[in-house]
Amino acid sequence: MLLKQIVTCTMVLAVAMTGVCLAEPPLKALIVDGQNNHDWKNTTPLLKAPLEETGLFAVDVATSPPKGQDMSGFRPKFKEYDVLVNNYNGAEWPEETRNDLEEYMAGGGGMVVVHAASNAFPRWEAYNEMIGLGGWGGRNEQSGPWVYWKDGQIVRDTSPGRGGSHGRQFPVQVTVRVADHPITRGLPEKFMHGVEELYDRMRGPAKNLTVLATSFSPEAMGGSGREEPALMTIRYGEGRVFHTVFGHAPPQHKSVAFIVTLQRGAEWAATGKVTQPVPDDFPTVDEAKVRP
Ligand code: ZN
């Protein structure tokens, strides 16, 4: 593993001449999973591999006990990592684990929220601040505004209604709304992600929230008829969160749009910067791309 990282770093060094890769240890990422109403056993490897392929991350996985079993011993060492990748949607964590996450994030930690991780912990106030927007679990207008994009700006709709829904899957296009953020810099203004289950009507505190990109949710597919947040960042204390609503199942994880935004979002959440170039196989305005 170490040899592979050095080889990867040397290649990066040779191409980019950054001079920093060999001088610094790789970043440490921790994927958190174990319970989810989605296929976490098959999506976690599809989160791990793209992060490792950047040459930037050494990746560990913390898997909780299964649903219905004693969670009291589940206490990942968040502080040993530069970024957490949250692939968890399940039972409440023990109080000490929740406190650990709050301290880690407030103190400058990083987290990537993937798809249904935004459905987790509807009653954990700090968690909802970290993820910005969430869905299901009884979320409604009391959870915060429905945030969407209209007429060139963000709308915070406080009218009553459910928090979180989705229509049928359809080919989802992404529109960048903040082009000068490290995660989106250099990406085309519009690009295809591919067939996905697009969340809509998400609600949450939406504090310190930046909507980097949106996707249109057609009413004809059972959606909201709105430009819904797709890629977001949230500032929580000194911590950084990158939230992607994408990643329903393994096919969506093979989309180049998903992979590249995951890689860039994870680096930004870990460091506040993005050093990765946009790859040649990045999708275009009308053509999604997938990797094997
Ligand atoms: Zn889903």
Instruction: Tell me the fraction of residues in β-strands, as a range.
Output: 25-35%
> Residue share in helices?
10-25%
The whole-number mean of residue pLDDT values reads 93
Report the uncertain regions: 1-21
The fold-level CATH name is Rossmann fold
* General shape: globular
Radius of gyration from the alpha-carbon trace, in angstroms: 18 Å
- Can you list the ligands bound to this structure? zinc ion
N-C termini distance = 22 Å
Provide the number of structural domains: 1
Order of helices and strands: HEHEEHEHEEEEEEEEEHH
Largest beta-sheet details:
9 strands, mixed
Number of contiguous helices:
6
Quick one: CATH superfamily? Class I glutamine amidotransferase (GATase) domain
CATH class: Alpha Beta
State the secondary-structure class: alpha/beta
Number of strands: 13
The CATH architecture: 3-Layer(aba) Sandwich
What do these coordinates show?
The strands form three sheets. Strands 2-1-3-4-13-12-11-8-9 form a nine-stranded mixed β-sheet, with helices on both faces. Strands 5-6 form a two-stranded antiparallel ribbon. A two-stranded antiparallel sheet has the order 7-10. The radius of gyration is 18 Å and the shape is globular. The protein has a single domain, classed as Class I glutamine amidotransferase (GATase) domain (Rossmann fold). It starts with a helix and ends in a 21-residue tail after the last helix. It is α/β, with parallel strands linked by helices. The protein is 23% helix and 26% strand. The structure holds zinc ion. Zinc ion binds at residues 38, 115-116, 197, 248. Zinc ion (ZN) binds next to loops.
